[in-house]
Amino acid sequence: MKATVYVSRDLSALSLGAEFVAFAIRTEAEKRGHDVEIIRTGSRGMAWLEPLVEVATPNGRIAYGPVSKGDVASLVDGGFLEGRTHPLYQGLTEEIPYFKNQERLTFARVGVIDPLSLEEYVRLGGYKGLANALKLSGRDIIKEVIDSGLRGRGGAAFPTGIKWMTAFDTPSIQKYVVCNADEGDSGTFSDRMIMEGDPFVLIEGMTIAALAINATEGYIYLRSEYPHAERTLNQVIATAYQEGYLGDDIRGSGKKFHLEVRRGAGAYICGEETALLESLEGKRGLIRYRPPLPAVAGLFSKPTILNNVITLASVPIIFEKGAAFYKNYGMGRSRGTLPFQLAGNIKRGGLVEKAFGLTIRELLYDFGGGSFSGRPIRTVQVGGPLGAYLPESQFDTPMDYESFSAIRAMIGHGGLVAFDDTVDMARMARFAMEFCANESCGKCTPCRIGSTRGVEVIDKIIQNRNREANIHLLHDLCDVMLNGSLCGLGGLIPYPVLSAVRHFPQDFGITDWEALSLA
Ligand SMILES: Cc1cc2nc3c(=O)[nH]c(=O)nc-3n(C[C@H](O)[C@H](O)[C@H](O)COP(=O)(O)O)c2cc1C
Ligand code: SF4
């Protein structure tokens, strides 16, 4: 009997030796006369179990991990091809609590299917959303997106349907759809995982966006450090053209949409939408003044829908199952699910897709299992390098956009980076300012000059040179950057800096925070 084995080809698994594991399974099985089919998938998102190997059984897929090539002979001898137990046995994959307790909508197929197989994608519900969207007018497509409550997953959480409506309402013979796949935030990898694990869902989402505003051309602006995703995307785009899902006549509808991947310039600022558009046009990644918004005058000054990978990849399920289905998940004005990403000093790092509303503590402990070092988690930075450092007293905050803004924090792209009690928060604040100085595009003074002055002021605080006066100076400087910067890099860097000072004053040598009378 032929055994079917699944091995991830996601970058996280490959970096841990998945290629060697797949090769060893084939050779060890052949040596023993077993017939094996190895299917390469995306990752299930349980990074601590990678390389994860699964085998199909009548009861479902059984997982083994983390598997190294040296484990393979004992796995085969122990009967893993029939799903037998072994020290690396993890049971049914979908019963592993980390996985079972998720609500996978956008990531439903990731880790399950061969990402290059259009047939598999369609078999598991793919392109049903497009078929439904093709029956609607542009205005009705946009209404469905508005009704779903979907907000941008790239950071700013702007309502997606409203952005699309602006592009729809702006007359032009040429419109574009651009996908922001720059994924520059520290501790984030959900864009990469979906592009490597279920790339057709992104193409489908972009095609629906194009139908909505009658755009005929689209670009995926891809982070230069993602060569595997680039190869995968180019392969599936070619398949989509061949099968009539892209091109001049999408599935016989007479609608046209062409799509290309463009490699990014390797700068953090090129993830900001206007700098991205400059870069896509072949120029240096400098921020543009707003207005006009990209939806009015974006790529080559034409109306452009510019959305994050996860935003666009969340669109097909809205059209497959309806806006009400999607809206049913979440809390308050944060509707649907978000793929949270656990990184840093955490025992079980990886991807957790859940409806908005679970708490930071649930993510860090129920899913993450606490710190990797075994020491108490002292702080977590949520939302990338521009996100606030949150202390333990705020770990019960629900993951929802409004609850986060109430505590002067942001969810951003859903990345959580954990730190144990050995972290020095004054160093982290300095690092944030230094990051801003290194990545600043230089267009506005508060960020260009302010970030360099910020590093100097933090150094003086650390060295106890006029500490109290310099704390006040840092506070004023952050106020200027927050309110006077042209974009979110200079405008948000005060979040990590001030949250570090506010929540961990002792690391800055401040004994009486109240006495400083800072807001
Ligand atoms: C400095 C900076 C970097 C950013 N980097 C990214 C990024 O890597 N990926 C992303 O999707 N959005 C990034 N954004 C947000 C984008 O400017 C934009 O809001 C987003 O791509 C819009 O898509 P959405 O509405 O789907 O979130 C960044 C913003 C700033 C200020
Ligand atoms: S805030 Fe920084 S990155 Fe943004 S426009 Fe100003 S100088 Fe450029």
Which distinct ligands sit in these coordinates?
flavin mononucleotide, iron/sulfur cluster
Largest sheet: number of strands, sense, barrel closure: 5 strands, mixed
Order of strands side by side in the largest beta sheet? 2-1-3-4-5
Number of helices: 22
* Beta-strand percentage range: 15-25%
Global structural class: alpha/beta
* Total number of strands: 16
Task: Tell me the overall shape.
Answer: globular
Distance between the termini: 70 Å
Poorly predicted parts: none
Portion of residues within helices: 25-40%
Mean pLDDT: 97
Using the CA coordinates, give the radius of gyration.
24 Å
Your description of this structure?
This protein has 519 residues and is of the alpha/beta class. The protein contains 22 helices and 16 strands. The chain has helices at residues 11-15, 18-31, 72-77, 97-100, 118-123, 128-133, 138-148, 160-169, 190-197, 199-213, 227-242, 273-280, 309-313, 315-321, 323-327, 360-367, 401-406, 425-439, 445-462, 467-484, 488-492, 494-503; strands at 2-8, 35-41, 53-57, 60-64, 89-92, 176-181, 217-222, 258-263, 304-308, 330-331, 334-335, 337-344, 350-355, 377-382, 389-391, 415-420. The strands form four sheets. A five-stranded mixed β-sheet has the order 2-1-3-4-5, with helices on one face. A five-stranded mixed β-sheet has the order 13-12-16-14-15. A four-stranded parallel β-sheet has the order 8-7-6-9, with helices on both faces. The longest helix has 18 residues, at 445-462. The N and C termini lie far apart (70 Å). The relative contact order is 0.10. The model has no long low-confidence stretch (mean pLDDT 97). It binds flavin mononucleotide (FMN) and iron/sulfur cluster (SF4). Flavin mononucleotide is lined by residues 152-156, 158, 180, 182-184, 269, 271-273, 306-308, 311, 487-489.
